[in-house]
Design brief:
The complex is a heterodimer of chains A (about 375) and B (about 240). Chain A is α+β, with helices and mostly antiparallel strands and about 375 residues long. Helix content of chain A is about 50%, strand content about 15%. Chain A is built from 16 helices and twelve strands. In chain A, strand 3 and strand 4 form a beta hairpin. In chain A, helix 7 packs antiparallel against helix 8 and helix 13 packs antiparallel against helix 14. The longest helix of chain A has 21 residues. Chain B starts with a strand and ends in a 7-residue tail after the last helix. Chain B is an alpha/beta fold and about 240 residues long. Chain B has two domains: about 120 residues, Periplasmic binding protein-like II (D-Maltodextrin-Binding Protein, domain 2, 3-Layer(aba) Sandwich); about 100 residues, D-Maltodextrin-Binding Protein, domain 2, CATH 3.40.190.10. Chain B: Keywords: Amino-acid biosynthesis, Glycosyltransferase, Histidine biosynthesis, Transferase. Chain B: It comes from Neptunicoccus cionae. Chain B: InterPro entries: ATP_PRibTrfase_cat, ATP_PRibTrfase_HisG. Chain B: Its EC number is 2.4.2.17.
């Protein structure tokens, strides 16, 4: 019986992959064992909680492929010509809680094209939407670029903007930072104490009293951060209008065309929202041209905020409303930021998505 | 099947466990030579004593090879994801206290909170080209804590012993380790972050939810529960 199910999953996976190929994608294979250092540097410790790490006496730490995106981006950057469309169909391995399978198939599609971002977003979305039509699943879309642009447009110090931008994907810390920068929570007591001491005695003296220097983080680095803390303490709080604007942006949830209108209204007071509103309008036009009904397509600015750090533009996800226990059936989005980190200076415009055939089969079974 | 009770095979933890049972009118004693890992329980029938390395006890509980086991909450939470599905906390025993804490060098006067650590990590990565290293053997607990706090740009490096020395040896920038008094941290020029307490651990009696609790094992449980004041059922 179990084999039958596997066979059905494979059948669905092969059919999806064939669909991507007939749309012009080049099928690609990647290694199953990947060097761990690249993935760790990219995703940080979180990936260790999700991926299996193994050790090779010669090659060092290796990771069982947790996704296809990284090896495909690397390969494309090394040898690919643009524009390029790739598809893959293979297994990934992830640690799971709650008895979900730790080995499962992913079928995906990646598009590298820097000429027409709106068109590329629309192409990928329309393709996924078309292939998943008829299944009892619901879709949500979002755009991380709106929040990032709103943060970039804040009238505050570069450091504060950078700190907020860095934590856009970690809502807990983002809110804490925003509350502190907005003067809504008092400054940390330990920090005020330190700054008082520094004001009274000078930073060098405070440091000299603190014990023998040790470790790789040097005295200069500590002094540099004290200077940063001094500048930050002297900076004016982020205005309550801007804090409210950020909160409004974060809470924006509507149909796509209605959300765009709200965004346009907000852009009248906050010009930083003009560019993402224009980008969204271009995308919605391109989607409408591909027969996506943007007047009913759900949109949430915060959608996808915690799922993957490197999504930095349009994002989408398909889930089963009747089976909340199931993983996301399909998801994807724009991840230019990831290619920037992997490319060490070089970057490409990339948008892609992935379907889990196993979840799709389960959704179908639930509907039978 | 008799009830299998796992206790630490040597050292202070074993002595304190034996003392604890003695206070509740149950004699746990080793048999044979000092070097032989065998023992018995007097005062409760149908109990088999199993002497185990403290680090093995969580694994044996999870596998259901022992019904009851004495070990630290730190080990159970580190070694068993979704531990509460697998074991039940019967009673904290009031000894073996240890805190899992995050500590940084004294000379980092600018870092006193986890918030500071996060900011320092961002700058460290920009300056040095790699993520700030935190040495620990409690990977799961530390990662969960830092991820819950929204800390980024760090990495955990494994240290199975002498963790306090890793900063001096330049193999880590900060540490997360167990401490009871803080003396070793202090002697190595390290300071605990004001909100860097991840877990307060102590020796605890755990019951395995995967072990087979047949009538004999349950009758032995009743024997313990009378002396120790435990509930009628293990969980």
């Amino acid at each position: 019986m179990k084999n039958d199910r596997r066979a059905r999953i494979k059948e669905v996976a092969d059919r999806l992959a064939a669909g991507f190929v007939s749309a012009g994608a080049l099928p690609v294979e990647t290694d199953s064992l990947l060097p761990a250092d690249v993935l760790l540097d990219l995703y940080g410790e979180d990936i260790r909680a999700r991926a299996y790490v193994t050790h090779d006496p010669v090659q060092g730490e290796q990771m069982l492929r947790p996704d296809f995106t990284v090896p495909i981006v690397q390969r494309h950057m090394a040898e690919g010509a643009e524009p390029a469309r790739y598809t893959y169909n293979g297994n990934v391995w992830r640690k799971q809680s709650g008895g979900r399978p730790t080995e499962y198939t992913q079928v995906g599609y990646e598009l590298f094209d820097r000429t027409d971002p709106a068109g590329a977003d629309a192409e990928v979305f329309a393709m996924f939407s078309g292939m998943l039509a008829g299944y009892p699943i619901k879709v949500t879309t979002g755009d991380m670029g709106i929040l990032l642009a709103a943060v970039d447009g804040l009238k505050t110090t570069d450091r504060r903007r950078a700190a907020l931008r860095r934590h856009v994907w970690r809502p807990v810390r983002f809110v804490r930072l925003l509350e502190r920068y907005g003067g809504m929570t008092p400054p940390l007591e330990t920090r005020s104490d330190l700054l008082d001491q520094v004001a009274a005695q000078g930073a060098e003296k405070v440091l000299a009293q603190a014990g023998t220097p040790q470790g790789l983080r040097s005295e200069q680095e500590v002094l540099a951060r004290i200077a940063v803390l001094q500048q930050d303490a002297a900076a004016a709080p982020i205005s309550s209008e801007e804090v409210q604007m950020l909160e409004q942006v974060l809470a924006l949830k509507d149909t796509s065309s209605a959300a765009l209108e709200t965004l346009r209204d907000m852009a009248a007071s906050f010009p930083a929202l003009q560019a993402p509103a224009d980008a969204m309008e271009d995308r919605l036009k391109a989607m409408a041209a591909r027969r996506v009904d943007v007047d009913s397509l759900p949109f949430e600015v915060s959608f996808g905020r915690t799922s993957m750090e490197y999504y930095d533009g349009f994002v989408f996800g398909f889930t089963s409303p009747d089976r909340p226990d199931l993983p996301v059936v399909a998801s994807g989005g724009r991840y230019d930021a990831l290619t920037r980190v992997l490319g060490q200076g070089r970057s490409i415009a990339a948008v892609g998505g992935v379907i889990r055939p196993e979840a799709l089969v389960a959704v179908q079974e639930g509907a039978l | 099947m008799s009830l299998k009770l796992g206790i630490p095979s040597k050292g202070r933890l074993q002595d304190k466990t034996i003392d604890w049972f003695a206070q509740h009118g149950i004699t746990v004693q080793r048999t044979g030579s000092d070097r032989e890992y065998a023992g018995q329980v007097i005062g409760v029938d149908n109990v088999e004593l199993v002497l185990l390395s403290a680090g093995e006890i969580p694994k044996e509980l999870a596998a259901g090879r022992i019904h009851l086991g004495v070990t630290g909450t730190d080990l159970v939470r580190e070694k068993m994801p979704s531990w509460s599905d697998i074991v039940a906390e019967v009673e904290p025993l009031g000894f073996g206290h240890a805190d899992l804490v995050i500590a940084v060098p004294d000379c980092w006067v600018d870092v006193t909170t986890v918030d500071d650590l996060d900011a320092a990590a961002a700058q460290f990565r920009a300056d040095h080209g790699f993520r700030l290293r935190i040495a620990t053997k409690y990977h799961g607990l530390v990662r969960d804590y830092l991820s819950g706090e929204g800390v980024a740009d760090y990495q955990l490096v494994d240290s199975q012993g002498a963790t306090e020395g890793t900063v001096k040896n330049l193999t880590a920038e900060a540490i997360a380790d167990i401490t009871s008094t803080g003396d070793t941290l202090h002697a190595n020029g390290l300071r605990i972050l004001s909100d860097g307490l991840i877990l307060q651990s102590q020796a605890t009696m755990f019951a395995s939810k995967t072990a087979e609790w047949d009538a004999t094992a349950l009758s032995a449980w009743s024997g313990f529960s009378k002396g120790c004041g435990w509930a009628d059922k293990p969980f």
